[in-house]
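User: Could you go from structure to sequence for me? I need the amino acid at each position, not a summary. Structure tokens:
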């Protein structure tokens, strides 16, 4: 019960239940090759623009500035540099499944060695005193990989 405007009001709590959204979708040839590299080889592949030389990870079919079709694949990482990070400390509910998200956790943008763009993922460190822009990190791959971005479990500080 809560007091509002001088009277007691019942506050209603609604349980969202178990939300599950099953789906299947085709990743296309570029993302499929990227995910196969993670799953089968524990390798991170990127595409390279034939016009300006920009190396994109995750891969893209067309270079943004040049509009050139990219067909050259290059191996990048698995090590790189932190370009940006944020430590999430505020608890919230995952809208996909209705369950609380474990906090704190660290989102990180990593510019992998050999890449010009960043890969967004997680860092296995939540103490902001131990993390800084420019620090070296390394990808940790899951033992059982299925061909998703989660085949990289997280990044660790080096």
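Assistant: Here is the amino acid at each position, in order:
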């Amino acid at each position: 019960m809560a007091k509002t405007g001088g009277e007691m009001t019942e506050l209603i709590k609604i349980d969202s239940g178990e939300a599950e959204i099953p789906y299947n979708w085709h990743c296309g040839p570029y993302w499929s090759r990227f995910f196969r590299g993670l799953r089968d080889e524990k390798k991170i592949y990127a595409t390279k623009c034939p016009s300006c030389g920009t190396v994109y990870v995750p891969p893209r079919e067309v270079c943004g500035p040049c509009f050139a079709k990219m067909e050259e694949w290059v191996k990048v990482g698995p090590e790189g540099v932190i370009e940006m990070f944020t430590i999430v400390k505020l608890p919230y509910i995952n809208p996909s499944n209705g369950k609380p998200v474990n906090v704190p956790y660290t989102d990180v943008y990593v510019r992998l060695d050999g890449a010009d763009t960043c890969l967004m993922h997680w860092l296995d460190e939540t103490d902001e005193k131990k993390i800084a822009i420019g620090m070296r990190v390394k990808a940790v791959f899951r033992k059982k990989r299925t061909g998703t971005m989660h085949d990289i479990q997280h990044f660790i500080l080096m």
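One structural detail worth keeping in mind: The first strand starts at residue 2 and ends at 4.
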